[in-house]
Amino acid sequence: MAQIQPPQPVRGTQSLLGEEADRFQAVTAAFDRVRRLFGFKRVEVPVIEQTAVFARSLGETTDVVSKEMYSFPDRGGDSITLRPEFTAGIARAYLSEGWQQYAPLKVATHGPTFRYERPQKGRFRQFHQLDAEILGAAEPQADVEVLLFADQLLKELGIGDNAVLKLNTLGDPPTRQAWRDALYEHFRSRSSDLSGESRDRLERNPLRILDSKAHADWPIVDAAPTIDEFLTAEAAEFFAAVTEGLNAAGVRWERAPRLVRGLDYYRHTAFEFMTDTLGAQGTVLAGGRYDGLMEALGGPHTPAIGWAAGIERLSMMIDAPEPERPDAVLVPLGDRAEREAVRLISDLRRAGIGADMAFKGNMKKRMARAAATGARFAIIVGDTELDTQAAQLKDLSSGEQRAVSFDLLGAAIRA
Ligand code: ATP
Ligand code: MG
Which residues contact 286 (CB under 8 A, 6 or more apart)? Predict the structure, then answer.
């Protein structure tokens, strides 16, 4: 018979166990805690959308749409895409599910996202994002609100000192148009020195050249005109209101006059929390105001702002979380105890005690297993204990052991 090889994972995907999985869980738990503190409602949106949801909203010229999307025809012939990000799907739901009636709507979610990229440290094909959005709010207070959420999350994760908030404005449409024209002129005059990719971007979207990862482009990018020369009074005022809010809340930020977001739909506030602890993958959390997105999807003008953060990148930056451990491990000895064990452990768990069972091997193996879980107690039950209805409760750190009646086990463990 031909030997079947066990399958390998799809490139750029991860399977996590132990500390890596605990890190992931610590990030989502902190996110959920801070989300509640800020009053962002949890939402769920599909992993799959019509391809047009992303193609229209992200813009055909972006990297994500032009080369990173996982798109495929389904069995009915519709073009479906695995979400590369959350914002477009949330905007689609806002329009199609009648969420507009709740505006301004503060929502948050997290889950897997997919991009066909070259896998490397901090860059995967299936990765996971945290996402927060405020939909239907044109006011700079909304920008401040999402930024405060991001800032507090990073601080609670213990990485506040390693992640710097870089802030920019992309202005209103007249500002952006004037800046775009000036950038076009600047880059066109130096086009022979630009990387091939940036030359491609010149005609389609010169702002994107500012985002270039090619070293050759950097001096040309550094010499590019900044948006400040083109800000309208309204755009300048909006940005001032955002920075004043951050200052009032005591959030540190740095102006990054050449920061742009990769996607086309951004206006006004754009930001990234950057780190130098993850090598080339410096952005841990990024977002901005996307007042143009809903219209691109065919909906009414709907100002909105939000951010997304890569869970894998945050997981790598946090301190290793305390491993999870049961409160107690039940060690049944003998046939009768093994039969009774399920009832005993169920009672404990129903009473809110984290309990595990050591059911393999001899007594020594079972006790070693109990100790290896890191539990505080082992509950030893054999024939004698069944006769007296009292277990031997062993404190695994001190080694002390005493008889505790079955009824009082929960209380003794919790004490
Ligand atoms: P990058 O410049 O690193 O490609 P991006 O601008 O494409 O990032 P966004 O679209 O802003 O990223 O996504 C928000 C966050 O999601 C990023 O800041 C990053 O933390 C994370 N992220 C993006 N792409 C990946 C990926 N392929 N693998 C892991 N995390 C990612
Ligand atoms: Mg990218």
Answer: 261, 271, 272, 273, 307, 308, 309
Which ligand is in closest contact with the Cα of 270?
A: 1
pLDDT at 278: 78
Q: Ligand 1 mean position to 116 CA, how many Å? A: 12
Ligand 1 atom with the shortest distance to the CA of 211:
2
For residues 3 and 371, what is the distance between their CA atoms, to the nearest angstrom? Answer: 40
Tell me: pLDDT of 251 over 90.
yes
Asked whether 283 lines ligand 1 (CB < 6 A), one says yes
Residue 309 beta carbon below 6 angstroms from any ligand 1 atom: yes
Name every residue whose Cβ is closer than 8 Å to that of residue 192 and which is 6 or more positions away in sequence. Answer: none
Joined tokens for residue 120: 């490397």
What are the chain's domains?
19-172+232-317 (3.30.930.10), 328-414 (3.40.50.800)
CA of 223 to the centre of ligand 1 (A): 26
Tens digits of per-residue pLDDT, 10-26?
999 999 999 999 999 99
Question: What does the block give as tokens for 47?
Answer: 């992993």
pLDDT greater than 80 at residue 359? yes
Residue 189 has pLDDT above 80, yes or no: yes
